[in-house]
Amino acid sequence: MKRPSASDATRHLDSLRAELDQGLAADPEALLHPAFLGVLHRELRERLGPADAEAVLMRAGFFHGLRDALRTLRSQAAQPGCAAPPPAPLLAMALAPAPPGLEALAARGCWPEASEARALEALETPPREPACLLSCGYTSGWLSGLWDAEVLALEESCVACGSVSCRFVAREAEVWRAAPDRRAARMLDMLPFDALWKLAQASLPEPDESGAAIDRDSPAVHVWGPVMVVPYAGLETVAAVEAVARDPAGREVCVVVVDLAGAILDEGFGAVALDRTLEAIEAWGAEALLTGVSPLAESVLADLDRARLVLRKDLPDAVAAAFQIADARRHPA
Fold first, then answer.
1. Residue 147 CA to its chain's centroid (Å)
2. 248 vs 2, 108, 109, CA distance in Å?
3. Cβ atoms of residues 33 and 219 within 8 Å
4. Residue 276 Ramachandran class (φ > 0 left, ψ -120 to 50 alpha, else beta)
5. How far apart are CA 173 and CA 169, in angstroms?
6. Model pLDDT for residues 55-108, shown as the tens digit of each residue
7. Of 74, 64, 324, which Cα lies nearest the Cα of 213?
8. CA atoms within 13 A of residue 325's CA, in its CB half-sphere
9. What phi and psi values does residue 29 have, to the nearest 5 degrees?
């Protein structure tokens, strides 16, 4: 399959910009809310037809994923000498190392929340093959940015098609092109990589002088080997922890970093929700580590009936400590 040339990419820029300007570039919430995802899939199909709708969804997802990866890498580069936290994508994903038989730049994983698949299940005509296109696009863009390569994440199983989870395999585009895979070839045709890279790079804001490496406004979780990072969002955090705990891809997790920065904790509902979060982590067999604790939250934590809470001042320090704890648990003295 012929790779898009530089002239092809340039020609695509205007049409891609028009597609992304229709709310998809400015509103990453499309990646998170099943209700909106269902409407988005249906309206795009009605307006553009199935083939063009699929292309728009893939490109929008790739744009968001690539932009988030580049922004994360920029933030990490701005903190030389600091313990850089694992990257945290907006879309919750659990990655596993490439199994034997796959090349070095490859991975398998799943989307624990399966938000897009849940939305597709509710459509009048559910898909007959895996169709989480925004999720595939986002994961492709995220890994392309992290690996500095052209990557396609291809969905292998989908909740909307009756599978128990939405699972994918990610490989470099050239590897897919050399494989006789009809779906991979069709999805690669939807991704003008050069043009999307230009758009993502052009959309990046000026470097953040604060150097924050994880988007604290993101409700997503990220699993990176033995460590899971989750911004605290009340009972939604409980659901996120339990979702990853149920998925086989989360079996390696033994430390969960709960970021309380910006969270409002009172002695009533807030304390109950946090206690339930800690219970869910303990029931999983993992250890909780809290960070971003404000002075107002200290009294709530003091009242929790917990023998020991591990606290760290900021997120980079918390993640570095989490990996140390995980290593100690796996290699006890």
1. 15
2. 37, 12, 10
3. no
4. alpha
5. 12
6. 988 998 999 899 888 887 776 555 444 444 444 677 888 887 666 666 667 888
7. 74
8. 21
9. -60, -20
Does the pLDDT at position 173 exceed 90?
Answer: yes
Residue 43 burial (CB count, 10 A): 11
The answer to whether residue 158 scores a pLDDT higher than 80 is: yes
pTM of the model: 0.59
Contact 120, 175 (CB under 8 A): no
Which pairs with CB-CB distance under 8 Å and at least 24 residues apart come from 248-253?
249/94, 249/95, 249/96, 249/109, 249/110, 249/112, 249/223, 250/94, 250/112, 250/223, 252/225, 252/226, 253/223, 253/226, 253/227, 253/228, 253/284, 253/286
Q: CA distances (Å), 332 to each of 24, 175, 285, 328, in order? A: 48, 40, 16, 5
- Asked if residues 263 and 300 have their Cβ atoms less than 8 Å apart, the reply is no
CB neighbour class for 180 (10 Å; exposed up to 12, middle 13-18, buried from 19):
exposed
